[in-house]
Amino acid sequence: MAKTKRLTPADVVIAELGVRPLARDLNVSPGCIVRWRTRGGTIPQFYWLRLIELADGRITTEDLVYGR
Predict the structure, then answer these.
(1) Distance, CA of 56 to CA of 34 (rounded, Å)
(2) Does any domain span residue 24?
(3) Nearest to 59 by CA among 28, 18, 1
(4) Residues 6 or more apart whose Cβ sits within 8 Å of residue 2
(5) Domain of 51: which CATH number?
(6) Number of structural domains, the chain?
(7) Could you tell me if residue 54 is inside a domain?
């Protein structure tokens, strides 16, 4: 049986929203978004509410905490 890789919160958000559109909507550099992925996959809680608003139902709070 093949193991499926669990997505980190950053992986989920980037897959759903994209790096550049997300950076533009959050008014940060694309590098900031990429660093979420390279620094363990966690997203600063400061951004959570805005991410949920931007995702329009595509991500949940659980996705931001645990990934998928």
Answers:
(1) 21
(2) yes
(3) 18
(4) none
(5) 1.10.260.40
(6) 1
(7) yes
